[in-house]
Amino acid sequence: MIGRLNHVAIAVPDLEAAATVYKDTLGATVSAPQDEPDNGVTVVFVELDNTKIELLYPLGENSPIAGFLAKNTSGGMHHVCYEVEDIIAARDQLVEKGARILGDGEPKIGAHKKPVLFLHPKDFSGTLVELEQV
Amino acid sequence: MIGRLNHVAIAVPDLEAAATVYKDTLGATVSAPQDEPDNGVTVVFVELDNTKIELLYPLGENSPIAGFLAKNTSGGMHHVCYEVEDIIAARDQLVEKGARILGDGEPKIGAHKKPVLFLHPKDFSGTLVELEQV
């Protein structure tokens, strides 16, 4: 079912500092910061040869990563995103296998303007998993 | 400097259960468990189209992931591994930029029989970073 690893998301307490580390220290190509108000984050994309790292910083009052950063003050790996061809088929298969979908179980439009779902970390070895339809 | 994302490592408290979730629930291709006594882990490789997920389980008495699993009893994302062409040149550039190398600063032979280094999480937004020469 899952295809490519679309991205690894890392929540960071200082977006400019994190982007500078990826650009200057690790020598990667990084984008300008991009506000995603619908998702409550500002994102810097780190372009690798085969996938992306997304550096996430809270945007607005109810950012979904604010709680994570309160607990992990240095930042940390927040989620992985796997690509699927059909998110409804994927969801139905996951539910049949006993996995829990976060929220109301309906896909939302994610940061790449494509349908996404998040899966319960307790069902995936403590790892928050995003699925994105591509 | 950094090239491909070689893998994302996820430490898991139950290797068979985690492998089954990736195989049956997420429909991915997973390897048989592979003991890596020199690295203190047993690994299941999850083969994605563009990279790998490595499910890590402690092996032996001084496993480097035992402390992580004691703190994160459900498991969790443990590190990311980026590929570099020349690990000595990469290390020297990192040190010059002020990043800290874990251990004695000399590359070790990693799980793929290639030279690796680990970088201090505090210098990389709370994320443990492995570099592997390819």
Specify the CATH architecture of chain A: Roll
Mean pLDDT across residues of chain A: 96
Q: Describe the biggest sheet of chain A?
A: 9 strands, mixed
Radius of gyration of chain A: 15 Å
What fraction of residues of chain A sit in β-strands?
35-45%
Q: Percentage of helical residues of chain A?
A: 10-25%
Number of domains of chain A: 1
Order of helical and strand elements of chain A = EHEEEEHEHEEE
Give the low-confidence spans of chain A: none
What does this entry look like structurally?
- The structure is a homodimer of 134-residue chains.
- Chain A contains three helices and nine strands.
- Chain A has helices spanning 15-25, 66-71, 87-96, and strands spanning 5-11, 29-30, 34-36, 41-47, 52-58, 76-84, 108-109, 115-119, 129-133.
- In chain A, strands 1, 2, 3, 4, 5, 6, 7, 8 and 9 form a nine-stranded mixed beta sheet that branches.
- In chain A, a hairpin with a 5-residue loop joins strand 7 (108-109) and strand 8.
- The longest helix of chain A is centred in the first third of the chain and has 11 residues, at 15-25.
- The first copy, chain A, starts with a strand and ends with a strand.
- Chain A binds chain B through residues 1-5, 8, 10-13, 18, 21, 24-28, 48-51, 53, 55, 72, 74-77, 80, 82, 93-94, 97-99, 121-127, 129, and chain B through 1-5, 8, 10-13, 18, 21, 24-28, 48-51, 53, 55, 72, 74-77, 80, 82, 93-94, 97-99, 121-127.
